[in-house]
Amino acid sequence: MRTASIFNRASRLGLLALSLFPLALAPMPSWAAASLNAYAATVGGSGIGTVPGGCDFAPSPVFSFFTFSGTAMPVQGIGPCGYAGAINQSTAATGPLGLSYSLLPVSLGPQSGAGTFDGTSQSIANYTGLGASAHANIGSGRPGGSVAMFQSIAAATFADTLTASSPLVVNLSAGFVRYQFSVDGSLTSLGAPEPFYFGENYMVLDMQHQGGPVYEVMNASVRRGGIGKISNGPPPAGWVTSTGSLSGGSTFLSLEFPISWGQAWDLKVGLLVWAYGTADSNFLSTARLSGLSLFDANHQPITTFSLSAASGTEYLPSPVPEPQTWAMWMLGLLGLAGLGLRRRRPDGRVAAR
Q1: Residues 57-84, buried b or exposed e (16+ Cβ, 10 A)?
Q2: Taking 70 as the threshold, does the pLDDT of residue 152 lie above it?
Q3: H/E run at residue 4
């Protein structure tokens, strides 16, 4: 009787295991925690600190996600290296998430006429839109030494997990996704170029698909006395530029990234702006994920699909791109090709090799 009881129990456990076996094979949604991050940093001063032998400088690890490496900060600390300001960060699961920071005028050197620096930084993070603005101003003179600092940085990111399904494709089959971003803003650094009177802006929109490499969707830059560029070339339609300024807006497309229909994938998007010297970078209004396009394994568009997100956000499908949008997409590819040809100068600026 006891042997039969054990046998019956084992049989029931075996049937239960068999009944759960198809569930084990089915795709399990691996929802990562959706998150928002906002960053605001302004740092300036003479650089006359208390560190013996002076300070070292390196890109701030706070902004390590971004392809822009010009955010050089004193490794031994802002205060000990003779600067004022802060690098602030805020994180949340729901948005919009905002953060701002202001630095009152600080001296750029002990000698007469060394000037002052003040700045502000502000960012907004949401799942469909990111905004950032940075203001930097050198006033009442010029920097008093080679180690003087005068920069503002603002950035925002969102991370989400998406899953797509469609009656037109087999679940778990291969597919592709392409993201569409609508971007508008302005960069300003006016005035004639003068020695030690700096003015430079940079903006970058980056994205990461399924934990892979970080890709640069687009960048924009302008320098005092120069003409604005987007993705290292002339601005596309929708943007206007003149000496020391760039403004406008347009749509940019990402590359096509692989997905599996019915399985979750992760997406992270980041916007960063930088103002150096006397400059304004204003993309607060914002960089938006304005649509997605989905494709089957043969890169054929799938227009009937459902899309779910860990954040609960309803992302919109992309309209069919117009010819000028395709041109801007190709411009973005050229920008990617030139990404590895940039290096950081000792003063934190970025220049082509």
Answers
A1: bebbebbebbbbbbbbbbebebeebbbb
A2: yes
A3: helix 2-25
Chain segment 26-76, per-residue pLDDT in tens: 343 444 579 999 999 999 999 999 999 999 999 999 999 999 988 899 999
As given in the structure block, the two tokens for residue 293 are: 């396009």
β-strand pairing of 265-277 with 245-260: unpaired
User: What is the rounded CA–CA span in Å between residue 148 and residue 108?
Assistant: 6
> What single DSSP character describes residue 348?
S
* Contact status, residue 118 vs residue 137, Cβ threshold 8 Å: yes
Return the pLDDT at 2.
37
Instruction: Evaluate whether 202 touches 228 at the Cβ level (below 8 Å).
Output: no
Residue 184 CA, chain-centre distance (Å), reads 14
pLDDT at res. 114 = 87
Mean pLDDT over 156-169 rounds to: 97
**Buried b / exposed e across 119-151, counting CB within 10 Å, b at 16+?**
bbbbbbbbbbbbbbbbbbbbeebbbbeebbbbb
Tokens of 95: 């948005």
The SS3 call for residue 190 is: coil
What's the residue count for the chain? 353
